[in-house]
Amino acid sequence: MQNGDAAKPKLMEADDKITGYYPIVTNTMCMNCHADKSKIDSKTLAIINELYPSDAATGYTENQLRGLWVIEMEKKK
Asked: I need a labelling partner for 40 at 20 to 30 A (CA). Which of 11, 19, 23, 73 fits?
């Protein structure tokens, strides 16, 4: 992603399992709650502050890698 490439899912096979790694990348929808606090709708921000008083999940921008979904599956026999 540092070179401008999109993060892509990867599948890895080992023994009797397949593991999928799926990137969690911020998009426009995420910014409704996770953008800089000055850009979040005041009603939304009030609810976030009420429900999550110690929340630190703001200040993000679009196209940031925030984590991975890791899914393990057994291979079909």
From this structure: 23
